[in-house]
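Exercise (ungraded).
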Amino acid sequence: MAEDLKKTGEPVEGDEAFIPPHHSEWRRIARVFVRRKISLIGLIIVIILIIMAIFADFIATHDPLKTDLRATLESPSTEHWLGTDNLGRDTYSRIIHGARTSLTIGVIAVTTSGIVGMAMGMSAAYFGGWVFAIIMRITDALMALPGLIIILLIAGLVGGGIAVVTFALAFGAIAPTCRMMCGQALHIKQNDYILAGKAMGMGSVRMMVMQIFPNAFAPLLVGMTMAMGMVVLAEAGLSYLGIGITPPTPSWGAMVNEGQAYILTQPLMSTVPGAFIMVMVFGFNMAGDGLRDAIDPTLRGAI
Amino acid sequence: MTAYIIRRVIIGLIILLLVTMIVFLFVRLLPGDPLIVYMAQFDIGAAQTIGEEQYQLLLTKFGLDKPIPVQYINWLGDIFRGNLGRSIKLQEDITTLMADVMPRTAYLGAISMVIGTSLGILFGIIVALRRGTWTDSIITLMANVGITVPQFWLGILLMYLFAHTLGWLPTHGWTPILDDPWMHFKQIIMPVICLSVGGMAGMCRLTRSCMLEVMRQDYVRTAWAKGLREKLIVYRHQIRNAVIPIVTVLGGTLGAILGGAIIVENVFAIPGMGRLMVAGVFDQDYQIVQAGVLMFGGIVIFSNLVVDIAWAWIDPRIRYD
């Protein structure tokens, strides 16, 4: 039977030729992503900075913490590629190690806030009613407090340091993640497979973890990439103010602050770390933009 | 419309109440004993040597022995009576301090908000109308850079260029407008640039994508098909519809600008809210920080409310969602 049909060359439903070729969604996303030059540049920037952070010990030429009071505020030379700071520390090595500080804080803060925000947003959308009202009103309240301000309150009460800054940044990023997840989950909830799951007697937690989460993952990945940029920028701002990373840990924001006093004699000391902050945030933003457009063109501008 | 306004006001008040709760719980639950901080103002050693009995006495005096909900109500009552507490470090009523510094931050924030949003929307429209040309590429790239540039770094670069190298503007400082309008103007140029750049870039990106979205709509195609002049299509059909989603993010933009004020005021040594709050963090003067957070939260909630109501009045569809 099938043989006969193939001879006639007319595909009929149920015939192999009628089934469209297997199409990998991730491959399509990768293709659209790569086609946009700017998002590819963003991704490359992010990868380079991650390599820089992981292999900081090998890439840096000096110990970023080692002070040398005989060689303070030196201009760039073959020994110190970007000169030295007011304590004789090698600026180039400090910048390389600064990538590690920024990325570590960023990744931990974004992952933590992602998990908490997702759980909150999903529960709000899934259970609806009172749970929805309470969670979303709390989110509204948190959104009313500009990110830096809530972080300032936490840092002001507890003091600075990497742990506190990470916690504060994570806390500040919960509300946007929650709101986005809630929107996604509300949309997914209307699908028939959720109804089918309910009919099969699937529990709430199982439903959220097995059905809603995987379907909302792609847009959330975009949101988290964008959040990385915001968190890195906020950390730099806090460290610039002297509230964030405590010295002598190398942090780009703190380095801009330290170099500000010597801007006339050693402009590289504050301008280069600042440029690195910008490049890192730019990389994450552009990669996130590209990812968003690649995953779903209809989301353009929505997240 | 009245029903919508009443509903919006009630939601706004609930959110304001939640903000006060979050701030109160933060201060109570995070490590750090307010009493120890209070004692520190009299004598550094007193906080450590204080006896159990005295400690209980102080707890009773400040009402800290009462259950947490009662403490919250008392605290809230104080705030609504305009009593934000007393700064331990500066020995001044926080309400007086706030009345002093708040107008400066609000003034800078308002100017930056107006400049940032209006120029951002303008650029976004231009870019959308010339999509695909080199104007589009350059302005879009600049907007993408604009949303990433750290404000403090931009401030330092501007300072280096305009104050140190060219000598056109003073490096930092604040002069009241009535004392010396020209000096005042010169001093606020750089802070306003720093504050408005992020909002401007964000607005430009958003306007561009909203405009491109609207251009694909059927009614725009119909407008072209019936032979309307391009000017009319752009003004009446495209811009009017594209602006609606933009307005919903205005509240967030204001919040971002106010958050930026914390950093920018410290770069340019402007005695505003941001500077006071950062000083409060360093002095462990948590009451100042707490008051600042409440003020900022209140402003953002209020402006969101105004934007929502104004927009429901302009676009009747919003009233019924």
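Further reading is listed at the end of the chapter. For now, observe: DSSP finds 14 helices and two strands in chain B. Residues 128 and 212 of chain B are 6 Å apart (CA to CA).
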